[in-house]
Amino acid sequence: MTRIIAGIAGSLSIAVPPKGTRPTSDRVREAIFSALEARDAIRGATVFDLYAGSGALGLEAASRGAVSVTLVERNPPAAAVCRRNAALVQSKLPKGARITVAPVSVRSFLAGAVGTVDLVFIDPPYELGDDELAADLAALHLAPNAVVLVERSSRSPEPTWPAGLTLDRSKVYGDTTLWWASALQ
């Protein structure tokens, strides 16, 4: 179990898939969301949580005011956990806020995605290849000033950023590195 840290669903416990995922620690999630709130990047945002696992990152964004959150997770047991967690958090949200679960591959989801997105979390399995990550990044349809956060092993190289997306900063937390990028205006 883990929990939603803050917002309307703050302290709500959510399930974690029994295997095959690496949940982002509370410490790292607190740092992520503190920085996102300082940038005013959450309230009213459309959010994709790609390779969602338990959905904790996207659900935290929903709790803090994102209006549309899509959790993308193709692993059936993890997608089932996402659906249960999404229903719990959705029950706390105001009318109009929406959480959906897409139980498909990230590539399939992005190929069919309509419109632009304001905030993207990408926390792929460590074994995902650099070229696959680069293809995921290139397939995003980002709103102006959108924020993309990539969580990878500290042993992984910096992602290859497509045109229109620039690195803002990176931060190492033990064996995890967070890469922050922004879409151009």
SSE inventory with pairings:
Layout: E1 2-3, E2 13-14, H1 26-38, E3 46-50, H2 56-63, E4 68-72, H3 76-90, E5 98-102, H4 106-112, E6 117-122, H5 130-139, E7 142-153, E8 165-173, E9 176-183
What do you see in this structure?
The protein has 185 residues and is α/β, with parallel strands linked by helices. It has 5 helices and 9 strands. The strands form 2 sheets. A 7-stranded mixed β-sheet has the order 5-4-3-6-7-9-8, covered by helices on one side. It has a two-stranded antiparallel ribbon with strand order 1-2. The model has no long low-confidence stretch (mean pLDDT 94).
Distance between the termini: 39 Å
Let me know the number of strands. Answer: 9
Helices and strands: which structural class?
alpha/beta
Helix content: 25-40%
> How much β-strand is present in the residues?
25-35%
Strand arrangement within the widest β-sheet reads 5-4-3-6-7-9-8
Q: What about the largest sheet?
A: 7 strands, mixed
Catalogue the unreliable spans.
none
